[in-house]
Specification:
The chain has seven helices and six strands. It has 238 residues and is α/β, with parallel strands linked by helices. The protein binds flavin-adenine dinucleotide.
């Protein structure tokens, strides 16, 4: 039945207060695996993801496949496999989504998370603030712009799987950005000197054979000269 609301001087969006044993910030593959593992161990888990889908960089929104073990850059480790929950996800995806449709991969992740007892998922919800007691994080505040609701979520433990370190940043933790020089850890692929390197951009696209030529109108922001792309980004082959 239709509801009627009288005029008021002003209103605020509703606030939902939730409590969990563990809060996982970010629903990319790291957050999904962490949340599933903890809920399977009997914890009450809340997983907060700011996007409408799970999967982060591996979701249909970005389409960076979870294939690090098998084909990172020029390595072709065709017999290597991701194990653990990641392996389960890949197997389920292979069974349901043999053609590798990225949208169906989102659905595989969503199905696994929604079927897991003890795991509450908040999609479209961005964490923007946290509360500390001394050095400990106690709660986060988040906003869902789709259902226009605030969330105040307290928990005993927190995992930052946001890819951007949002909990660490908001908690005021010391941090650095860029790439360390090779002398620090001796990793083979690091630059000689520490540098302001960040992960580069990726362009993934599909091709389809058509019967006739197809017109393409480039967007106004398309580069006229491809050499304007920074060299480090252009040289990364996945
Ligand atoms: C250009 C590029 C190339 C890469 N190449 C490779 C490769 O060759 N091999 C490989 O193994 N890996 C590669 N990676 C890394 C790969 O994307 C990651 O290994 C993996 O997908 C990251 O998963 P994640 O869950 O840690 O982070 P993400 O996938 O980044 O997930 C984090 C999630 O947290 C959400 N989030 C962020 N802030 C908030 C907030 N405030 N509130 C709520 N949610 C939030 C984000 O929207 C995102 O969905 C590459 C990454 C990039 C960017």
């Amino acid at each position: 039945m239709m509801q009627t609301f009288q005029a008021e001087p002003a209103r605020s969006f509703p606030v939902h207060a939730l409590k969990a044993d563990l809060l996982v910030a970010g629903g990319g593959l790291a957050g999904v695996c962490a949340a599933l593992a903890a809920a399977r161990d009997g914890l009450q888990v809340i997983l907060i993801q700011d996007r409408p889908v799970l999967g982060g960089s591996a979701s249909s929104e970005v389409r960076l496949w979870a294939n690090g073990a098998t084909s990172h850059q020029a390595n072709n480790n065709r017999w290597a496999r991701e194990g653990g929950i990641m392996g389960e996800i890949m197997e389920e995806n292979l069974y349901r989504n043999k053609e590798g449709n990225p949208v169906l991969f989102d659905v595989v992740l969503l199905d696994m998370v929604q079927a897991q007892p003890g795991l509450t998922l908040l999609l479209n919800t961005a964490i923007f603030e946290l509360e500390k007691a001394g050095k400990d994080i106690r709660a986060v505040s988040a906003f869902n712009a789709n259902n226009q609701s605030w969330y105040y979520v307290s928990a005993a433990q927190f995992i930052d799987a946001s890819g951007d370190g949002v909990l660490g940043y908001l908690a005021g933790a010391a941090h650095r950005s860029g790439a360390e020089g090779i002398e620090e850890f001796g990793e083979k692929m690091t630059p000689a000197e520490n540098a302001d390197h960040k992960p580069c951009h990726s362009i993934y696209f599909y091709t389809r054979r058509t019967a006739n030529p197809v017109r393409f109108t480039p967007p106004g922001f398309a580069l006229k000269d491809i050499r304007e792309i920074p060299a480090s980004a252009a040289s990364l082959l996945i």
